[in-house]
Amino acid sequence: MKVDGKPYRTIWLAEDGWTVEIIDQTRLPHRFVVERLQGLEAAAHAIRSMQVRGAPLIGVTAAYGVALAMTEDPSDAGLERACATLLATRPTAVNLRWALEEMQRLLRPLGDNARRQAAYERAGELAEEDVALCRAIGGHGLALIEAAAAKKKPGEAVNVLTHCNAGWLATVDWGTATAPIYLAHEKGIALNVWVDETRPRNQGAALTAWELGHHGVPHKVVADNVGGHLMQHGLVDLCIVGTDRTTATGDVCNKIGTYLKALAAQDNGVPFYVALPSPTIDWTLSDGIEEIPIEERDAREVTHLTGATADGSLATIEVVAPGSPVANYAFDVTPARLVSGLITERGVATASREGLAALFPERVP
């Protein structure tokens, strides 16, 4: 996608052909910084610290992390250590495990001398595959926005509500939930995107708003608790969110607060869609609430905020009563019954075992 007219991806090989460059998302929206990853530990830190985030991008970064590790130690022990280190960085997004299993499946049968090149080639393939998957998701989701636009008066905007960041910053390019939005914008469909701020890390206000703004898509940032009010007053035509893990039965795990938006959508008759590439489906799970591990993060993400001051410098301030204990759950699970449809690269499925199996029969255990 574009940043002020210049195309970017979120991760790419540097000119030297072996180090990996990323957009450091912890610096956005006030600083645009490209960070270079030069080894396994740097890749693991990038995932753990959320310099890269979003399930698809985490998976691709992990694959490149294995490739970087193979430049350091291509032995069996080196491969196992790399995968264990990367797997431990984030517990919720299934793409991380999927990408590491892909790399292990490829590299284990190879000799040490062949592993480095093979790892880089496969990581690059996974990046390109992610771009293709997201572009296909965009095409299927575009039809939903076009259907909403057909009900509007000429020039009247389609109002889409998002939560967290499921944009190109969460993938290699295009995004999941935003891919239909970008395609609709390119087709000239009038849009307004309601962007939830998404506390505590503000990925909506800091990342989704940043990328939509730099790409020229009309949007408004709203506090997290505004979504229900907007729906009650007919100001949301459809919700599109992403997911970090979806069960084989259609339960959806996404950024904390997604469940509340889904409840409000159902109460107000607003379609609630989830956009996801198939690697985000965990075919081994049936009950998202009981089986998906929910990451609990540092309390400081809740107690403190970092932003720009009037002179442009960055400052971190405390916003919670000093000494108050904090619980920081990073994700919640939206039951399949609240999901209008799952937008995948193969089409829109009902949020059910049968719906997903119809699109991905080869993946059913």
Q: Tell me roughly what share of residues is in helical segments.
A: 25-40%
Helix/strand order: EEEEEHHHHHEHEHEHEEEHEEHHEEEEEH
Rg: 20 Å
The coarse overall form would be globular
Query: At the fourth CATH level, what is the homologous superfamily of the largest domain?
Result: Translation initiation factor eif-2b, domain 2
GO molecular function: S-methyl-5-thioribose-1-phosphate isomerase activity
Organism: Tistlia consotensis USBA 355
Enzyme class: isomerase
Catalytic activity: 5-(methylsulfanyl)-alpha-D-ribose 1-phosphate = 5-(methylsulfanyl)-D-ribulose 1-phosphate; 5-deoxy-alpha-D-ribose 1-phosphate = 5-deoxy-D-ribulose 1-phosphate
Task: Describe the model.
InterPro entries: IF-2B-related, IF-M1Pi, IF_2B-like_C, Initiation_fac_2B_a/b/d, M1Pi_N, NagB/RpiA_transferase-like. Belongs to the EIF-2B alpha/beta/delta subunits family. MtnA subfamily. It is an enzyme of class 5 (isomerase). Pathway: Amino-acid biosynthesis; L-methionine biosynthesis via salvage pathway; L-methionine from S-methyl-5-thio-alpha-D-ribose 1-phosphate: step 1/6. By secondary structure, the protein is of the alpha/beta class. The protein folds into two domains: 2-128, Up-down Bundle (Four Helix Bundle (Hemerythrin (Met), subunit A)); 139-363, Rossmann fold (3-Layer(aba) Sandwich). It contains twelve helices and 18 strands. The strands form five sheets. Strands 8-7-6-9-12-17-18 form a seven-stranded mixed β-sheet, sandwiched between helices. Helix 1 packs antiparallel against helix 2 (55-72). The mean pLDDT is 96.
